[in-house]
Amino acid sequence: MADKRDYYEVLGVGKDASDDDIKKAYRKLARQYHPDVNKAADAETKFKEVKEAYDVLSDGQKRSTYDQYGHVDPNQGMGGGFQGGDFGGFGDIFDMFFGGNGGRRDPNAPQRGNDLQYTMTIEFKEAVFGKETDITIPRTENCDTCHGSGAKPGTKPQTCSVCHGSGQQEVVQNTPFGRMVNRRSCSNCSGTGQIIKDKCTTCGGSGKLKKQRKIHVKIPAGVDDGAQLRMTGEGEGGLRGGPSGDLYIVIRVKSHDFFEREGDDIYCEIPLTFAQAALGDEIEIPTLTEKVKLKIPAGTQTGTFFRLKGKGVPRLRGIGQGDQHVKVVVVTPSKLSDEQKDLLRQFASMDGEQTHEHEQSFFDRMKRAFRGD
């Protein structure tokens, strides 16, 4: 695990960072390295690193474990198997030193299936309001003919006569230091502890088949870019009666032409004319669901923000919605009639301003620049 960076370092926060600090740091970095936005060769790798760090540090239990053990998973330590209140891991260690089975597990025990990951790209408003859809994923499932045993119907696997079901063989070697006993996977049964003489004709004795499975997915309203949905039991099938793995759906949200999102809040920019900003006006503002009226006070400066309360994104784990923040930008006209110019000159004169106008072509200005004028 030495090649992994510290999760706090990845997100650029201290170990005393609050949940909000971690969330803000993640959102900033996720936007920076999102493969749909950042086309750098290492963008996707960095995005996954940021996502992994956030998944751990945003979960109270995972963060506590990480703070205590670092990248070393205590559930995968020596002997492999210290999980919750199960002290099987310690039993394996004692067995190794005091003549037990050397930490080996029963090769015929039920085994959980592998987890799967699916990346789903959705539209901006689909993330805001949620959606239901069907996806098709390839996954390994138990054979319906033999129910995962690999044996022809009416028969069953037999215990390996070489390893007697343990899945391992002992190899004794005489060395200058004495007799050495090594254990290795049984060559007769390939470590399974069982021999299938009459194989299932459907799966060829593997007990598994590759299938395309259609799954109905409900995306909750308010889901954000980089979110991960877990569908329990929708991963690959388990072995020997073990449970299926889980399916993790990673959400990627397309950008919007007008709206930008920051958490549960929405941001947008609205252009104003000089007259609207100076004299005030009432304008229409598009929101996620409708158009609303916004009163612009006289004398509004460019860059001013107005808040539309409750017009943002529905809160994923709460009640209510975020807000919409409207930034007004005063647009300077690029083409003026002679009458408009005269009126502006009069306005500037009344305000005590002096104007210095130079009518020149683009090429004249370029020549002057080269001459250093």
From TrEMBL:
Cofactor: Zn(2+)
Top-level taxon: Bacteria
Free-text comment on the cofactor: Binds 2 Zn(2+) ions per monomer.
GO BP of this protein: DNA replication; protein refolding; response to heat
Zn finger limits (CR-type): 130-212
A molecular function GO annotation: ATP binding
Residue span(s) of domain J: 6-70
Compartments, record wording: Cytoplasm
Residues that hold Zn(2+) 2 according to the record: C160, C163, C186, C189
Record's GO cellular component terms: cytoplasm
Quaternary organization: Homodimer.
Entry function: Participates actively in the response to hyperosmotic and heat shock by preventing the aggregation of stress-denatured proteins and by disaggregating proteins, also in an autonomous, DnaK-independent fashion. Unfolded proteins bind initially to DnaJ; upon interaction with the DnaJ-bound protein, DnaK hydrolyzes its bound ATP, resulting in the formation of a stable complex. GrpE releases ADP from DnaK; ATP binding to DnaK triggers the release of the substrate protein, thus completing the reaction cycle.
NCBIfam families named in the record: DnaJ_bact, PRK10767.1, PRK14280.1
Record remark: domains: The J domain is necessary and sufficient to stimulate DnaK ATPase activity. Zinc center 1 plays an important role in the autonomous, DnaK-independent chaperone activity of DnaJ. Zinc center 2 is essential for interaction with DnaK and for DnaJ activity.
Family of this protein: Belongs to the DnaJ family.
Name by which UniProt lists this protein: Chaperone protein DnaJ
Naturally occurring in which organism (per UniProt): Paenibacillus dendrobii
GN (gene name): dnaJ
